Amino acid sequence: MDTLQVILSGVLLGGVYALFAAGLNMIFGVMRVINLAHGELMMLGAYITFFASDQAGLNPLVSLPLSAAALLILGLLLQFALVERVVNQPLLSSLLLTFGLSTLMMGVALNLWTANYRSTAWAPLTGNWDVFGLAVSRSRFVAFVIALLVTGGTYLFLRRSTFGKAIRATSQNAEVAQICGIDVRRVRLVTFAMGSAMAAIAGSLIAMIFTISPEMGRMFIGKAFAIIVLGGLGSFVGALFGALSLGVGETLAAYWTNTQLAEGVAYVILLIVLLVRPSGFFGRAE
Amino acid sequence: MSSQVSQIRNEVDSEQASPTRPMPKWEPYLGWIYLVILVIAVAAMIWFPSNASAYSVTLALIVLMTISLATSWNFLSGFGGYTSFGHAGFFGIGSYVGALLLYYERTGWITAVILSGVATGVLALIIGYPTLRLRGPYFAVAMLGFTELFRVIVTSWDSLTLGGRGVFLPIVRFQQVEDGATWWDRFQVQVHNNQNYYAMLVLAVVAMILAYVIGTSRLGLELLAIRDDEVAAQSMGIRVVRVKITAFALSAVFPGIAGAINARQVGFIEPLTIFAVIWSIRAISTAILGGQGTILGPILGAIVLTLVSERVWESDPNLYQVIFGGLIVIVVLFMPGGFISLLQNWGVLPRSRRL
What we know:
- The structure holds 2 protein chains of 2 kinds.
- By secondary structure, chain A is mainly alpha-helical.
- In chain A, 74% of the residues lie in helices and 3% in strands.
- Chain A has helices at 2-31, 38-56, 60-81, 91-113, 138-160, 162-172, 174-179, 184-209, 216-231, 236-256, 259-262, 265-276; strands at 128-131, 134-137.
- Chain A has a two-stranded antiparallel sheet.
- Chain B has a domain at 28-174 and 182-277: ABC transporter involved in vitamin B12 uptake, BtuC (Orthogonal Bundle), CATH 1.10.3470.
- In chain B, helix 4 runs antiparallel to helix 5 and helix 5 (109-132) packs antiparallel against helix 12.
- Mean pLDDT of chain B is 85; it is low at 1-13.
């Protein structure tokens, strides 16, 4: 029963990971840019939720759309002014650019908000529900549901809408997509903004579950990489699979050993997958 | 249409500019020129502590450390185009290997420092084998992961590394100059009292010489070929995996040794600050500011940036992150070749591999 309990909370955590990793993966798929600043976008989303709750007394579910909207706009600006310039350039440029952005944003956050850990607690979401003898953390469950809704919604958008089709086409082959009349610049703009908003929502949900700090982004970006490498770079379903596996793997490791070592699970997975099957379990070989 | 034509013409012109402009006469002698400058600079640096405050010596030590970090980062990432975010990890591992050897009193300090470099070099061989076989983004991603993994391992392996409490290193006991001592006695005391500085000087000199050797050798040429087009390089018969792993292992030795010397210098290390990504940022930002893939660039960048930034670093380490992050963004967007390529484009410097 204990193990089942642990697996359950791992799955709940995995939902939020999936949301975060899916955005990163989408951006990579469309423009072949690994957004190293993705973790910091998430961190900004988390802080918006924290301050909305701390200063204005807004509950996290209300501030969620706010943080999504704010990061959507920031994402548009970043893509328009900076990231667009390094698309189609050697990988080195985009890696260094987003690394610089990540460092910059983290530095600004450390200056403004200090390195202190902070947490948001909203009374109705503290405590557990009891389901068939399993304790289901309320905040984690709500976060899981929201994360799945957003991830699922994005998936449907990509599958069903015309613009989603354009995104998928660009992801498969940007040049051919352009020849077919798709405005790939706009696709990239929308994709980056959507990815940023997804990161922000993930951040807001994390703020409901864990304590947050300006340095949280670095931790989550490592996990997100493990997830998308596990699932396959550019694969949406793969990211979901990878996220749930990592969530369960981490909580099990924390249960069997300690939380300190559990942090390493993501990197161990990353290395093993790179060794055994570098294209991931759902990805195409490059 | 005409603007397009003129644009194409401009591109063609700029491409042809380098071969048509003849190399200056002094270009073949650059190696000797460097040697003379290096000898003079080293002589000055050896003399320097006798006439400088402790603060200036520390600052010079940081400049030398940054030269080692940036120059060695450049081996694989600059010449070969494989961006590594792993320097912080090697720096941390080197710090811990050196510090623990001294803490448990297993070896003398010089042996400990050298062993740290051996450890990180071997570690790079082990890591490089799985990750450098892969092309594209995997290597960069994996190196970010490794740095975190190292930190987690060092923090959790409490019985060996003392975990999050950190390690205190034995301090260097200062010697006094006796009355009536000869200049040689004085010099020995000076070396003893500034041994970390002198160790870092040796490290930086070795790094710079190695940079010149790589930059002008076949290995350097092979790395440049890999950077420009790995598939083409491979089909021309370059053993790309071996070349990349060689460059990676060489580049990992230096942060390891620098970490161990730095640990002795500061006297206390703990996982969070020693595995901090700031060490990678330092190496990367200085190397790309000076010019990645060049011999002089990282040295130039390290000297300029350290001297400018050290005051900022003291006043507020967080501001340092803001400035360096912003700097990386600006360099990538507006001067991707750094100082060296800027000077080359202005025609001040020739497009020589010896630069």
